[in-house]
Amino acid sequence: MATLKVVKTDQFLADLEDVVLFIAQDNVLAAMDMEQHVHSQVDSLADPNFPRRMGRVPGTLELVVHPNYVVVLQQTNTTVTAFNVLHVARQYP
Question: 40: Cβ–Cβ under 8 A, 6 or more apart, which residues?
Fold first, then answer.
């Protein structure tokens, strides 16, 4: 199976920055680790077999990047797009 192109939207990047800044208030190293981990997990979506689950909104998928955070995705035959990073307790949609 072909590799997918991974796209990270500006909103995804802004959401991730918010998460990192929040974590950094208590632990800068943990914040840096989280940022690296999320980017690595999202980049792994280039492999169509990398695990993801059906999203809460029809037509979306979710990637659990941490017990407290999910990335909202959409996928086509050639591209997977990361739209948001959400805390699991957040009301969504």
Answer: none
pTM given for the model? 0.93
Region for 84 from its dihedrals, namely left if φ exceeds 0, alpha if ψ lies in -120 to 50, beta otherwise: beta
Instruction: Work out the pLDDT band at 91, boundaries 50, 70, 90.
Output: confident
At which residue do the structure tokens 């208590």 appear? 26
Q: To 10 degrees, the CA torsion angle through 3, 64, 88, 82?
A: -10
* List of residues 6+ apart from 28 with CB closer than 8 A: none
| 58 cis-preceded (ω within 30 degrees of 0) | no
